[in-house]
Amino acid sequence: MSLEPRSTAPARHAPCAVPPNVLERIIRNGTTEQRDWALSTLSLDATARLTRTHNAAVALARPRRRPAPAPAAIGPRRTIADAEGREILPGVTVRTEGAAAVEDVAVNEAYDGLGATFDFFWSTYARNSIDDEGLPLLATVHYGDHYDNAFWDGQQMVFGDGDGELFNRFTVSLDIIGHELAHGVTEDEAGLAYLNQPGALNESVSDVFGSLVKQHKLDQKAEDADWLIGGGLLAPGVQGVALRSMKAPGTAFDDPVLGKDDQPDHMSRYVYTSADNGGVHINSGIPNKAFYNVATAFGGHAWEKAGKIWYETLRSPVLRTNASFRSFASITVTQARTLFGSDGAKTVQEGWRAVGVRV
Amino acid sequence: MSDRERVRVVLERSGGFAGRTIRRGLDTDDLPDAEAEALRALVGALPAAPAHAAGPAKAAGPDRFTYAVAVDAAGHQGVHHFADPLPEAAKSLIQLLSKAPLLPAHG
Ligand SMILES: [Zn+2]
């Protein structure tokens, strides 16, 4: 079996080089024949973003017969459910949007974390939820028995209570909640394959936005943030401060059971392994450190420049599902130039070069 | 599998949000009779071990777990690879091993 992402990830782009915005223009202004061609070309691309572009273009091309429904108020539309220790989703609803806090701390942490993450994406990048179409946010807490994980299953968030020996409850840290919801955003926008370099980029993008959600909530500047992922998650007695450090990859923990944090901070120490889908949680240290370099070089609120550049990179139609560190990095440089001029591009270039990614 | 036969099982769980490989294990020699018997039954219910060594399973999605269950018993030796969602035949054994004593990390 080949593990090359090229063979597992479907091609993301229509087999023609016409950018979607040009196709859109053809749909609006072209002849019937041109319009049909452009619509079918757009529909070959399976990503959700281009599907939306396609649908919007179809709506423009064919006038509505019915008036559009009134847009719902923008907001996270949260539902928190309780799996009561079983591995069944979604479980019993325990708190809905606007309802008062309950006694259960995991329920409130999930509710607040989903709210902070929604607020981050909406107020900084005008993104309306995971899918940018106002997807209501559903989270299940108390999933499984001593369950050591949190994940986005493609439709909802799932949080375990942790085993208490190694890990505490997974709602404990806001960057974990932001990390998991960011997996939903990445899946929607870029579909980065979860293997080797694109997988490590997928992980890194989640750490980046997870950390930014926390920094935004705390109103921290890049130079004041701790850049830790999963602070508070390690159970008492485990030797470490968090699961990952974006500022200093490889230094978050050193424990007899957990092992030593082995995240590299430079391409020369890239880890080749068949475990963890090619070490996606290990090699993410390299792009994590690059982001930290860029964010601190710009200074100020990291979401304003570095975060904006990474967000637009994720949305870029030229980002492929099997992107390498280098191809991702080169798109960040292009986005930086567009958004912040040649000085911005230089800052981003230097951030990547410091971790051994040549751009 | 006979009543008194020694069975040792080590679970290596990889991936997850933490992305760490966590090892836990059980040994019938260390268990009360009833629990030892339950462990033998769960190991006996596993699907046949692959004829040749297979690589790790691929995670079903971001931050999902993969599992390697190493069995050491007279009539049954080998490593079984699984990913979430688990097959029924492996679910109870992995749930049991997920609460077993921790073993030191490799390396
Ligand atoms: Zn992740």
TrEMBL record, chain A:
Main localization of the protein described in the UniProt heading: secreted
Claim: Hydrolase is one of the keywords in the record: yes
Top-level enzyme category: hydrolase
GO MF terms held by the record: metal ion binding; metalloendopeptidase activity
The EC number(s) this enzyme carries: 3.4.24.-
Domain Peptidase M4: 106-187
One GO cellular component term: extracellular region
Gene Ontology biological-process annotations: proteolysis
InterPro entries referenced in this protein's UniProt entry, alphabetically: Metalloprotease_M4, Peptidase_M4, Peptidase_M4/M1_CTD_sf, Peptidase_M4_C_domain, Peptidase_M4_domain
Domain of life: Bacteria
Location of the Peptidase M4 C-terminal domain: 190-357
Cofactor: Zn(2+)
UniProt cross-references to CDD domains, sorted A to Z: M4_TLP
Subcellular location: Secreted
Annotated family: Belongs to the peptidase M4 family.
Annotated PANTHER family: NEUTRAL METALLOPROTEINASE, PTHR43579
Name of the protein described by the UniProt record: Neutral metalloproteinase
Naturally occurring in which organism (per UniProt): Frankia nepalensis
UniProtKB/TrEMBL annotation, chain B:
Short name of any one Pfam family annotated for the protein: Emfourin
Name this protein carries in UniProt: Uncharacterized protein
